[in-house]
Amino acid sequence: MANSATAVADSRGGFTSRTGFILAAAGSAIGLGNIWGFPTQAAENGGGAFLLIYLLMVFVLAYPMLVAELTIGRLSQQNPISALRNLASGTLGKRFASLGGVLGVCALSLILSFYAIVAGWLVAYMLAPVFQLLGLEGLASWFTEFSVSRNLLMMLVIMLLTIFVVRDGVSAGIERWSKRLMPTLLALLVLLAIYILGQPGAMDGLRMYLLPDFSQLSPQMLVSAMGQAFFSLSLGVTGMMVYGSYLSKQENLPATAAVVAGLDTFVAFLAGLLIIPAMFVAQQNGVTIYAEDGSLLSSDTLVFTVLPAMFDTMGAAGPFIAIGFFALLTIAAITSTISMLESPVNMACEQFNQPRRKMSWLTGAVITLISALIILNFKALFGLVITATTVYAQPLLAMLYSLLLMWVLKRDRLLKELQQGNPQLEQTLFWKIWPAYVKFICPLMILLVFIN
């Protein structure tokens, strides 16, 4: 029993500072959805109009749900399965809640399995211009050509980097690297945006991005913006729940969640300042961006087709801009893969009473094998796994977690938990609105996203 207790104690820790938590949680949320997905959605859905609707959806949907998931984690300060089980009462209720935790961890592991493949492509496109500058054209071409060998190698690189961070624990691994990677990401994003905005054609993209065209408003745009806000903050797959379990009881949860959501949204906004003007710079340089009917070409592969074509037209500066751009995307991806691996590792450590290092390697190896299986059966599995996890599992699980928190947990227990970081919470407008809002409105909105 002593060894088991030591193993669990070794696996659990906490963030040593509020800044460390904010950077780690923001890193979890800030990923390809912000830097790739959001600008693409904006370019397809009216630019400035989509931006305004997206900001509204972050406020009315994503932020309330983020507070809910962080609260579930901090309430018990245990892994997602135990945290959700503690919300319920009765044998049947506890089993159902535990199943929700298991499904969330499994969904997150599957998301990591395809996310690592895409992140591997980013590393490959970052290395290609390096070898091009060295005169190794054949090797540079290998990195940009789709092949099983390249996909396997680059995915393995991402998984190894992720395991090395997670195995060192919360403060020595996740927090330390988040403090390094997040400022680097922000610096690269700002520098690249400034450079792109100085190129011919960029102002056309800037006008499209910042000046709303409300003639393009539609129910589908509302749903797209809602979905983007929801997925941007990694809700519904226990990642934020785990980070919440490492958070000090003295932290003001609503205020801390607001900072995380605000930083995540700010990075998405900056990414729009980079990607959308870059598209119009590419168009100025002869790269076709839009079809004759006005639809965006190559939206799913924008960063692997349109933008590299733009870099090729930028002369001597092109390879260096390409390296910086794909380094930016790689950092964003790794800050997300770290949080994706942390949840199943945390669950394995506490459920099986095993040390963190052992579970990091074992869990990482299992997810690596799943990724390899997807690569070897790419056409059949890649799209299927993405659809099953992000389109179906995430909205349904997020809805389940909000229902467990608000319909099962007693209101006075919830208030007592939140008051630990804010004794005056009961008198605030947040407490007067948030419980009923998450209890009734958020599930209905998530259901709308799911149906569409």
TrEMBL record:
The chain crosses the membrane at residues 21-39, 51-75, 96-128, 148-170, 182-202, 222-243, 255-280, 320-341, 361-386, 392-409, 429-451. Signal peptide: none annotated. It comes from the Bacteria. The keyword Membrane applies. Keywords: Membrane, Transmembrane, Transmembrane helix, Transport. It is a multi-pass membrane protein. It is found in: Membrane. InterPro entries: Na/ntran_symport (IPR000175), SNS_sf (IPR037272), YocR/YhdH-like (IPR047218). This is Sodium-dependent transporter. It comes from Bacterioplanoides pacificum.
